[in-house]
Each structure stands twice: as structure tokens, then as C-alpha cells.
């Protein structure tokens, strides 16, 4: 009888320990640090396909899920304020601001922050300029110098789609800032359309007879409701970034890429797992 009670108590203690371990793990993943796998080469050679990274979610603030995982049941969210905002040059993880076009984890992107709210970004012959000053590029930046667009040559799918810009000659373009008041016109509607619809709901912007309506109310000007950022991939010839789909809203930013905790060469043909591990990349901080 005594042995049964002891076993029962041990089982209860085990269940309690597992329960609290799961709760602690969920809290850490939700608010403190998250793990992601890099599935593409858009950030080469800073990050390689097959890198597994940790992301600091505390730095920019974090929020609990709006639904119970694996269900559609809505729940109240809890937000923790961050202690900083993204800085130019930092590698950040964010939810893609629009219809998914396939990067990694099907919901998150990772890029380098190039422009903060209020900055003017411009690219001249692959060189990035921020507020008219040439930006110092990361050491591991990668692009093919043999592939060049000419200045003034319009490239398909570039953002916004009414400019004679391309991925090598782009801008100047000012990054929107919370509180900015813009006069809506045919000259800038393609730049701000996605922002207006993101902040007011899909389909909220209508154009009728040269006049603009937001949620069925005539609008001649619009006040930006939050800060935005401009991001680029380090592998400039093979990156879907702000040049193609626009700005990243502050509310979509998840955290700052911290370090590579594991790395496997997916292209390694060897049958040996040891031969595919990139030992030299493990525990490297991301810069």
C-alpha cells in the first residue's frame, strides 16, 4: 500500500514537472527567444541554407498568439514592450506584410534592415545610399556583378510598379514614419496603397473617377498610423525584399537574429551526417 502511494506521488510529481517545463518552454518561445531554419540563399553569405538560428524577441517587443495553436479559436493577446527599435544594418525576422510568396517557415522572412522611418533609401549601380550617404555594406554581401540593369530601365514586379526603377538603380524612396501626412494622388497611390489597406483592411481603398475613398469616405490626405522599415537581402541578385514588395510595418517585426546554433549543408552528397555539419558556423553571432 505504501509503495503504491509512493509511486502515485512520484507520478504526480513527474506530471507537474513536465507541465511546468512545457509552460516555461512556451513562454520562452513566445516572448524571449525563437528558433528558425533558413531554407533559401537570400541572405548568403551571412546566412546559408541549412542554418538554424536563434532570434531575440525581447529586443523589439513580443506578443502572444491571437489564436490557440493548431486551432482557429481566438484568445486575448499579451504584449511585452521592447527595449529598442530595429537599427540600420541589423538582421531582423518579421512576418511578411502581404500575400505569401515563399521565403521560410511560410510566415516569416529574414532580411537586413536598411532604412528606418523617415530615412531616404536609394540604390545606384548596386551601391546603397541612405540619406545621400553611401551605406557601408556587410562583409558577406553577395551579388553577381555580371548581371546589371541600366539606370532608367524599368524592371517587372519592382515596388512601386509605376517607376522606372530596377533592383540595381532604385529610388530615392522615403520610408514612412508614424504621423506622416500624405496627400493622396495618382503620383503616389501605388507607393501607399498597401500601407492604407494594411492599416484599414484589405479592399478599404477605392478609386472612383480620379477620387480616392477609404472605407467609403472620400480622402484627399492620409495619416500614417505606424512606423515602417526598408529591408534587403544580403544576396542581392537572389532576394525577394523591399525592392519588390515594399515596406515592413513595425508591428510585423518579430525580433533580431542572434546566432547560428546549428548548420547543415543540405547540398552535401555524403551519406554521413557528420560530413554535412558545418561545424565552423555553429555558435557564430549574426552580424
Task: Give a structural overview.
With 287 residues, this protein is α+β, with helices and mostly antiparallel strands. It folds into 2 domains: 183 residues, Ribbon (Umud Fragment, subunit A), CATH 2.10.109.10; 43 residues, no CATH class. Helices cover 18% and strands 29% of the residues. The chain has 4 helices and 19 strands. The strands form 5 sheets. Strands 1, 2, 5, 6, 16, 17, 18 and 19 form an 8-stranded antiparallel β-sheet that branches. A 4-stranded antiparallel β-sheet has the order 9-8-7-10, with no helix packed on it. β12 and β13 form a beta hairpin. The longest helix has 31 residues. The protein is globular and about 85 Å long. It starts with a helix and ends with a strand. About 2% of the residues have low confidence.
Question: What's this, in brief?
Answer:
This protein is 18% helix and 29% strand.
**Radius of gyration from the alpha-carbon trace, in angstroms:** 23 Å
Annotated CATH homologous superfamily of the largest domain: Umud Fragment, subunit A
Shape label = globular
Q: Which parts are unreliable, with pLDDT below 50 for 5 consecutive residues or more?
A: 100-105
Total number of beta strands: 19
| Structural class assignment | alpha+beta
- Mean pLDDT across the residues is 86
Strand content: 25-35%
Amino acid at each position: 500500500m505504501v509503495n503504491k502511494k509512493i509511486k502515485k506521488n512520484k507520478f504526480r510529481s513527474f506530471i507537474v514537472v513536465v507541465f511546468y517545463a512545457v509552460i516555461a518552454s512556451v513562454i520562452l518561445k513566445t516572448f524571449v527567444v525563437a528558433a528558425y531554419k533558413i531554407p533559401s540563399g537570400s541572405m548568403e553569405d551571412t546566412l546559408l541554407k541549412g542554418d538554424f538560428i536563434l532570434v531575440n524577441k525581447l529586443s523589439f517587443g513580443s506578443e502572444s498568439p491571437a489564436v490557440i495553436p493548431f486551432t482557429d479559436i481566438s484568445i486575448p493577446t499579451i504584449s511585452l514592450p521592447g527595449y529598442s527599435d530595429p537599427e540600420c544594418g541589423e538582421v531582423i525576422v518579421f512576418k511578411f506584410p502581404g500575400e505569401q510568396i515563399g521565403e521560410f517557415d511560410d510566415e516569416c522572412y529574414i532580411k537586413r534592415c536598411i532604412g528606418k522611418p523617415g530615412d531616404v533609401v536609394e540604390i545606384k549601380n548596386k551601391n546603397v545610399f541612405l540619406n545621400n550617404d553611401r551605406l557601408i555594406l556587410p562583409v558577406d554581401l553577395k551579388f553577381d556583378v555580371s548581371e546589371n540593369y541600366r539606370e532608367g530601365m524599368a524592371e517587372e514586379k519592382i515596388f512601386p510598379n509605376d517607376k522606372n526603377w530596377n533592383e540595381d538603380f532604385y529610388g530615392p524612396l522615403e520610408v514612412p514614419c508614424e504621423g506622416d501626412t500624405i496627400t493622396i494622388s495618382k503620383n503616389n497611390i501605388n507607393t501607399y496603397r498597401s500601407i492604407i489597406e494594411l492599416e484599414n483592411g484589405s479592399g478599404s481603398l477605392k478609386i472612383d473617377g480620379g477620387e480616392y475613398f477609404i472605407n467609403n469616405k472620400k480622402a484627399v490626405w492620409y495619416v500614417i498610423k505606424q512606423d515602417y522599415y526598408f529591408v534587403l537581402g544580403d544576396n542581392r541578385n537572389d532576394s525577394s525584399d523591399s525592392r519588390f514588395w515594399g515596406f515592413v510595418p513595425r508591428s510585423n517585426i518579430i525580433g533580431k537574429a542572434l546566432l547560428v546554433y546549428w548548420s547543415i549543408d543540405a547540398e552535401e552528397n555524403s551519406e554521413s551526417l557528420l560530413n554535412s555539419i558545418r561545424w565552423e558556423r555553429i555558435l557564430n553571432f549574426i552580424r
